[in-house]
Amino acid sequence: GVHLFAEKTSWEEPGKHLYNVEATSYALLAQLVLKDFDSARPIASWLNEQRYYEGGYGSTQATFMVFQALAQFQKDVPDHKDLNLEVSIELPSRSSAIRHTILWESASLQRSAETKKNEDFVVTAKGKGQGTLSVVTMYHAKLKSKHTCKKFDLRVDIRRAPEDG
């Protein structure tokens, strides 16, 4: 059988992110085959936390395995169908909170909110279920004038299209 040692919910090898998420995906699938849903929940949570802000997991193979394992988790774990969350995001620069209702039928849809200001915010979730919150902070800095980017080359050739007729 598959055992979780010392309450570990993931397979973690330092510096091997792709292997970690792929191996942990297999562990989640094994727990689901064994119908050990109590052990499967923290594994699924860990996998959700590993997602890059663009939505992937670093490689096609790792992303495919994570999606397969999480899809099987959603299908097999019985209490997910009761999902009903009311989520609000309060930003000081907005006069009213951004509100989302997350139900089983629409749970896979990603929701987002954006602010251009560096400000504190409050997220409140009420109801039944579990979700993942990702916060991305971006900043822009001017390059030093003598710095040249050698990793990007864009060439544009504009030509007039032939006229019909």
UniProtKB/TrEMBL annotation:
<feature type="domain" description="Complement component 3 CUB">
    <location>
        <begin position="82"/>
        <end position="143"/>
    </location>
</feature>
<dbReference type="Pfam" id="PF07678">
    <property type="entry name" value="TED_complement"/>
</dbReference>
<dbReference type="InterPro" id="IPR008930">
    <property type="entry name" value="Terpenoid_cyclase/PrenylTrfase"/>
</dbReference>
<feature type="domain" description="Alpha-macroglobulin-like TED">
    <location>
        <begin position="17"/>
        <end position="72"/>
    </location>
</feature>
<dbReference type="InterPro" id="IPR050473">
    <property type="entry name" value="A2M/Complement_sys"/>
</dbReference>
<dbReference type="InterPro" id="IPR011626">
    <property type="entry name" value="Alpha-macroglobulin_TED"/>
</dbReference>
<dbReference type="InterPro" id="IPR048848">
    <property type="entry name" value="C3_CUB2"/>
</dbReference>
<dbReference type="GO" id="GO:0005615">
    <property type="term" value="C:extracellular space"/>
</dbReference>
<dbReference type="Pfam" id="PF21308">
    <property type="entry name" value="C3_CUB2"/>
</dbReference>
<protein>
    <submittedName>
        <fullName>Complement c3</fullName>
    </submittedName>
</protein>
<dbReference type="GO" id="GO:0006956">
    <property type="term" value="P:complement activation"/>
</dbReference>
